[in-house]
Write a structure and sequence with these properties.
Layout: H1 2-12, E1 21-26, H2 32-41, E2 51-53, H3 56-64, E3 71-74, E4 94-98, E5 117-121, E6 140-144, E7 166-170, E8 190-194, E9 212-214, E10 235-237, H4 265-326
Parallel strand pairs: 1-2, 1-3, 3-4, 4-5, 5-6, 6-7, 7-8, 8-9, 9-10
Organism: Anaeromyces robustus
Transmembrane segments: 290-317
Signal peptide: 1-21
Amino acid sequence: MKLNLLLNIIISIFNLTLVNSINVNNSTSVDEECQIFYSIIGKNNGKCHENSFSNTGSFSFAITKDDHIRELHLNMEKMTEIPPSIGELSELEYLSMYFMSVTDLPVELAKLKKLKELYIHRLEFFKIPPVIGELSELEKLTIRQNQVNDLNEIPEELFKLKKLKELCLDGVENHHKAEIIPSSIVNLSELEILNNIKTLPDELYQLKNLKELYLSSNEIEEISPSIANLTELEKLNLYDNYITELPDSINDLEKLEKPVNYQNKWEIEEEYRRYDEEKRKADEKRSKDIVTSIVILITIPVVILVILIVTCLCCLYKHCCITESRV
């Protein structure tokens, strides 16, 4: 089997197509075809889009063997650190890391000068690694739900990302501070912040290219009339905050999809209360209907039985009366 596989791989060398993506999953085995192919030329033929490694040593070896990888997906629960060799992936454009015991990123990550998208989900960061600020080509950054610790510090280096267009922060404490959204990120077109922010910094209203703004499930109490400065804004979600009204200036945003959803926490709570009350009443009615149905089901046969008994007694009485009269 291995011999045939080896022959097929050697034949495929003549039509070599470099790999575009690699998946490193939580596994205990190495994909056989990819393993053999790496041992021959250090690159695969485009078929090995999913590879599995049981430890960081194998993973480190694999990624340094192919510097043409454009996408890298890491999902290894037992991995405690990202090997410095990741910096050798000079063509990498997309990197996702999730469900790992990693607490920091290596400084070598800064070598990924072509990285455009970075997705970090449920790692064990205490803070956002400053090295992210060195990814000069980064256009999309998503940091969601760290498994153990909420992020409590936003490094200034993050504000160097001049080409950043989409930013999503979920599970970040204290990011209501003004410096979290500096006006230096002028190209930002999509912003999503999910946590417990109470106020929006003035800098947010200077993001002239902002097209989508998602601020649901926060503790925002009001929106500044300065929102009219966001002339390119198309989508705005303010659901589940403490906002009771929107400024009139929001009507000046010609590209904005209306109506804007700003249903506040009190309204949502009242809605849930009404729903629970209606559900309770419906359950009570259903219970009463069931009881009524049971009573009817029991009563009808009993009534019929009583009628039959009465009828029989009446017949018997009449029979007795007739007999007595004859006597």
